[in-house]
Amino acid sequence: MRFHFISSIVVLLAVLFLKVTPTEFGLLALSILVVLCAEMLNTAIEAVVDLVSPEFHPLAKVAKDTAAGAVLIAACGAGIMGYLLLSKYVMPLYGEILAMFGKPSDTATIVSVLIVVIVVIVVKSLTRTGTPLHGGVPSGHAAVAFSVATSLSLNTHDPLISLLAVGLAAMVSHSRLLMRIHSMWEVIIGSCLGCAITLVVLLLFKAFP
Q: What's phi and psi for 188, nearest 5 deg?
């Protein structure tokens, strides 16, 4: 619920700057309300199921999974609605930002990913946490995933491809949390490290071809 509220606030603040039409704002607000209502109903169903069946029961699991699925469907619908309404405002601006960095060379792209891997291993050895391929600070999977997403964004200059790449990188990073291999901060540090190193390397190659 906290995540949904934060996302709603971000979207509502964004539409103020984008100056959407009243109709578009109404549709976005309706989508947000549908998601929030679905989340509240999901919480209510979970509470009732826990009250009626405190012990594990297959039907209780079905009820909770179905309620959670309803929230997911509502969130997907809100995401589609948001994309259809806001893409014409956001995508051109995002494309201009990507174009400002220019198109990096293939060598710069490969070198940036290799440097990210080396830096992750060095940092893990210095902090003495985890192994090069498992656990520790920072998350290597998150670092490499966001490094690739950054390179792909700057190579294509396509806003949609960039967003899909970033979304895939976020899913890779989130999997490390679900598997309890990394903490949230380890994933965040890895993600920022991957993006930062990649941007620096690509800009250096551009400045000194």
A: -65, -45
Share the mean pLDDT of the chain: 88
Residues 110 and 167 in one domain: yes
Domain of 125, in residue numbers:
106-207
> 68 CB contacts (<8 Å, ≥6 apart)?
42
Q: Residue 58, preceding bond cis, omega within 30 degrees? A: no
**Phi, psi values for residue 181, rounded to 5°:** -90, -35
pLDDT in tens, 28-50: 999 999 999 999 999 999 999 98
Active site residue 24: no
Catalytic residue among 39, 46, 96, 186: 39
pLDDT tens-digit readout, 6-35: 888 888 888 888 888 889 889 999 999 999
Question: CA angle, 50 as apex, 45 and 55 as ends, to 5°?
Answer: 140
Rounded Cα gap, residues 109 and 195, in angstroms: 12
What is the gyration radius of the CA atoms in the chain, in angstroms? 21
Is 159 within 8 Å of 98 (Cβ atoms)?
yes
Q: What is the DSSP letter of 131?
A: B
Tally of domains within the chain: 2
Among 32, 67, 91, identify where a domain stops: 91
Whether 74 and 128 map to the same domain: the answer is no
- In whole angstroms, what is the distance from residue 145 CA to residue 173 CA? 8
Same domain, 122 and 171: yes
Give me 111's structure tokens.
Answer: 């070198």
